[in-house]
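Hi V.,

Quick status before I head out on leave. The structure for the redesign project is tokenized and pasted below; the design run finished overnight.
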């Protein structure tokens, strides 16, 4: 039974390797432009099939709807993920952009870093993800500037505007024209990981347990009886 579980974990690892390869292949494709992104949003599952693909978008920040997601670590420090809707150029739809990480003020939790945000047309490069990561939160958490989590359908209702069902993980400073627009945010995002090594670790544990059971069986059923007088 334990050996079967080990082989099952190896099979899961092979499935995850195939998934990881597909993610890497999407990441190597040319970035989706604004028009392509909006066209895909009109197709069933058009955007979800492009998760982890790079994008190069143009639009305007809705800075007044920026949200700071609390309890998000980066490089061993605690702080916030800064999330701002971007109105795509020539479109009424919005896409949520996870712009980067901002540190927490140790003396005043509600004191937030000023994040410079251009008011005009900007170019944003990033990678498509499903939604910002979630942390545990108590029910009835307030819906203010600082939040624990962000649910896309619920946030769409707050905005009163169409919101694409994906999020952009910003990879570099936005640009205004040809010039970068520094915002002081950190972007040491973790690379996509399907968790392949976890399954290999589980498989090793099951096979080790199988070997232990086999060894005990041989000892008690064969070796030990022979040693008795």
């Amino acid at each position: 039974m334990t050996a079967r579980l080990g082989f099952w974990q190896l099979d899961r690892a092979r499935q995850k390797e195939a998934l990881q390869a597909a993610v890497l292949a999407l990441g190597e494709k040319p970035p989706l432009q604004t028009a392509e992104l909006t066209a895909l949003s009109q197709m069933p599952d058009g955007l979800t099939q492009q998760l982890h693909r790079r994008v190069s978008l143009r639009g305007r920040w809705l800075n007044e709807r920026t949200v700071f997601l609390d309890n998000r670590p980066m490089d061993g420090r605690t702080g916030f993920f800064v999330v701002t809707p971007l109105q795509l150029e020539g479109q009424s739809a919005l896409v949520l952009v996870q712009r980067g990480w901002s540190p927490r003020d140790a003396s005043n939790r509600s004191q937030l870093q000023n994040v410079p945000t251009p008011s005009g047309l900007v170019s944003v490069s990033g990678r498509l993800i499903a939604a910002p990561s979630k942390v545990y939160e108590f029910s009835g958490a307030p819906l203010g500037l600082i939040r624990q989590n962000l649910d896309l359908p619920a946030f769409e209702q707050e905005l009163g505007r169409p919101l694409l069902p994906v999020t952009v993980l910003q990879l570099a400073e936005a640009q205004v024209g040809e010039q970068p627009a520094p915002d002081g945010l950190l972007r040491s995002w973790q690379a996509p990981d399907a968790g392949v090594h976890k399954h290999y670790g589980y498989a090793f544990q099951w096979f080790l347990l199988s070997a232990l059971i086999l060894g005990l069986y041989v000892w008690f059923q064969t070796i030990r009886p022979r040693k008795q007088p």
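Above is the designed sequence. The chain has two domains: 1-25+195-229, 31-189.

G. will cover questions while I'm gone.

Best,
W.
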